[in-house]
Structures are given as C-alpha cells and as structure tokens.
C-alpha cells in the first residue's frame, strides 16, 4: 500500500511539472501572439503610409504630365536661332579644340 501512495505522489509530482510547463508555454505563446499582433499593426500602418505616398507621387506625375502638355512650344525664331547656334559651334569646334583645357593657350595670349 505504501508503494501505491509513492506512485500516486510521483504521478502527482509529474502532473504538477506538466502543468507548470504548460503554463510557461502558454505565457510564451501569448507573448508571441502579442508580438505578432503589434507587428501586423505596424505593417498596416506602413502599408497605409506607402499607399498615401504612392497616391501623392501619382498625383505629382499627373500634374507634371498636364504641365508638359499645356506648355507652349518655343517660338519658331528661337528654335531657328538655337539651330544656327549649334551648327556654328559644330563648325568652329575643330578650330578651338587645341585651346580646350590642357591643350594649349587661348588665342591672343602669349
């Protein structure tokens, strides 16, 4: 009969150990759940901020596109002057290459 009581005591002790481990695991599980909940909330906030930022970027791009479409073209005389200027630069460039930085002295300098 004494051995039966000893077995009951050991089983009771194991049962208490198991309940203690279970309680500890439940605490860890609850802490993990709270961390996941906080992480999910943070991700939702970040997602909302990204959506707002993207909406603002889209709005800015649409405004820029609208401004480019409504921008007046340059007057034909200005385009003609610009074309002649760059043609002149291209014609004179070979004469001036020797005077580029590191190539020699500027004309009219000793």
TrEMBL record:
InterPro entries xrefs? CEP15-like
Which terms are listed as keywords in the entry?
A: Coiled coil
- Coiled-coil region: 47-74
Q: What is this protein called?
A: Centrosomal protein 15
Q: Which organism is it from?
A: Cyprinus carpio carpio
């Amino acid at each position: 009969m004494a051995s039966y009581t000893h077995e009951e005591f050991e089983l009771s002790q194991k049962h208490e150990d198991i309940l203690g481990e279970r309680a500890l695991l439940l605490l860890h599980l609850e802490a993990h759940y709270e961390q996941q909940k906080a992480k999910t909330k943070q991700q939702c906030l970040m997602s909302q901020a990204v959506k707002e930022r993207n909406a603002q970027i889209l709005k800015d791009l649409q405004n820029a596109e609208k401004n480019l479409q409504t921008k007046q073209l340059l007057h034909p005389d200005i385009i003609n002057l610009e074309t002649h200027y760059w043609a002149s630069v291209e014609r004179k460039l070979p004469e001036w290459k020797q005077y580029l930085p590191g190539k020699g002295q500027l004309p009219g300098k000793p």
